[in-house]
Specification:
Elements: H1 2-12, H2 22-50, H3 76-89, E1 95-98, H4 101-113, E2 120-123, H5 127-136
Parallel strand pairs: 1-2
Helix pairs in contact: 1-2
Length: 137
């Protein structure tokens, strides 16, 4: 998977593909198509929210979202730890909501690193429902 990530990165940051390896050049049209399809999907999603065809979920507390569209290894989990510790040091008790990808390894690591800290960790695909459960509790 690391090799794929590296190749995609090289293709994304190369302007002139004429000197790229044949494999890279052959992937450019596929990645361009995938990018276009993703753009259309995002426009449709945005329109569904804009016209209230998809329900928005608002939490009664401020939310900090840490995430992006790249694969793992970009430091999102350590950033969540840092922000959580900062909030705890500021006298707040954060609730960390995660989908729990990869069998919950991320959540297990957060629990281990934030042991003894008044931070709660909620795991579930529907993060709004997970948050609501914590607020009821």
């Amino acid at each position: 998977m690391e090799k794929v990530r590296k190749v995609v990165n090289e293709i994304a940051y190369t302007r002139d593909h004429s000197k790229s390896p044949a494999l890279h050049r052959s992937l450019v049209p596929i990645l361009t198509l995938a990018s276009s399809l993703y753009r259309v999907a995002l426009q449709i999603r945005r329109s569904l929210y804009r016209f209230s065809l998809v329900q928005k979920h608002r939490l009664p507390v401020p939310v900090i979202s840490v995430g992006n569209l790249s694969w793992g290894g970009n430091g999102k989990t350590p950033m969540v730890e840092y922000i959580s510790q900062f909030l705890v040091d500021s006298g707040l008790s954060p609730l960390i909501l995660t989908r729990g990808y990869g069998g919950g390894d991320e959540a297990k690591m957060l629990k281990r690193h934030l042991r003894g800290v008044p931070a709660k960790i909620g795991i579930g695909a529907n993060r709004a429902a997970t948050a609501a459960w914590f607020f009821e509790k």
